[in-house]
Amino acid sequence: MDAALALIGEDLKNVELQFKKDLQSDVPLIRKVGEYVLSSGGKRIRPALVLLAARLCGYEGSRSVPLASVVEFIHTATLLHDDVVDNANLRRGLASANTLWGNEASVLVGDFLFSKSFSLMVADGDLGILKVLADATTMIAEGEVLQLVCTSDLEITVERYIEVVRSKTAILLSAACEVGAILGGVDPELRQAVADYGMDLGIAFQLMDDTLDYTASEEQFGKSIGHDLEEGKITLPLIHTLKQCSDQERDFIAGVVEKDLLSDEDFGQVLALVQRYGGIEHTVASAGEHVALCKKHLEKFPASAAREALAELADYVVTRVK
C-alpha cells in the first residue's frame, strides 16, 4: 500500500473530509451512526481505486475526491445491511453498529447512505458514472439474495460461488475503477481493462477474506472467526474440502453447517479437515491467479506511478492479515 499512499495520500485525507460534509443531516442519529462506521478503521480500498484509476487514465481534476466518497458511502451502506443480515456483532474489531444501535437504526442509516449516494451522483451530473454505480448497486443487491439462496448448500459449485463473489463484493471494486476511467475519458478498451482489474482484485480480496475467516485471529481480522461457517456460508476453502473428503467427513460437515450455534470444537474439526485437504492453500492459489490477471489488465497502460501503485495494491490483497 506504500506506493498508493504516497501517490494519493493527500486526496485520501480530502476524501475523509468529504465524508463528514456528505454526512450532514438534521437527524443526529444518522451522523452518529455514519461517523462511527466510517471512522472505524476501514482500508479505504474502494476510494483509493477511484483515485488511482483516475490517475492511471490521466485525470487530474477535482471530481475524483467526491466520487471516491460516494463509492465508500455505498460500501458502508452494504456493511450496515450485511451486519444485520449476518447477525454480526463485530466489525473492524469494534462492536458493529447493529450491536450498539439496533437493527432498525442500522438498516435505516444504510438506506440513508444509499439514497445520499445517488443524490451526490446526480449532483456530479455524469450519466455514465451514474449508470455504472447504479448497475453495481443493483448487482450487489442481487448478490446478497443469491448468497441467501446458496446458504448451507453443500452442492454449490466453484462457478456458482464465484458468481456470488462477483455480484456481492467484486462489482463495487470494478465500478470504482470504471468511475476513474470515465473521469479520464479513455477509450472503451482501456475502460474495460481497468474495470476488469477491479473485478479480479475484488474476487482475490474476497477469496482471501474466506481464508482469514478460518485462519486469522479475531484481534487481527476484526471480525468473529468461523462466522461464515456459523452462518452456513459455503466458501471456497470448504467447497474444495467437500470435493476431496470422504462421505463420512462430508456428513460431519453437513451436520455442523445445520447447527444454529457453532461450538469451538465443531469449528476446530472442520478447520482440521479444511487444512488436511488443502482448502486454504487452494484458495490462496486461486486468489493469486486473480492477482496475476490484475497485472495483465494493467499492461494495457503505459508505465506510470499509478500503474505501479495499482499493481502493489493487488499484491497487498493476497498478503493481508486483516
Automatic annotation (TrEMBL):
Organism of this sequence: Geomonas oryzisoli
Among CDD domains, the record links this protein to: Trans_IPPS_HT
Keyword set, alphabetical order: Magnesium, Metal-binding, Transferase
Keyword Membrane annotated: no
| The organism's taxonomic lineage, starting at the top | Bacteria, Pseudomonadati, Thermodesulfobacteriota, Desulfuromonadia, Geobacterales
Q: A Pfam family matched by this chain, by name?
A: polyprenyl_synt
| This protein's record includes keyword Hydrolase | no
Write out the similarity annotation.
Answer: Belongs to the FPP/GGPP synthase family.
What cofactor requirement does the entry state? Mg(2+)
Q: What protein name does the entry list?
A: Polyprenyl synthetase family protein
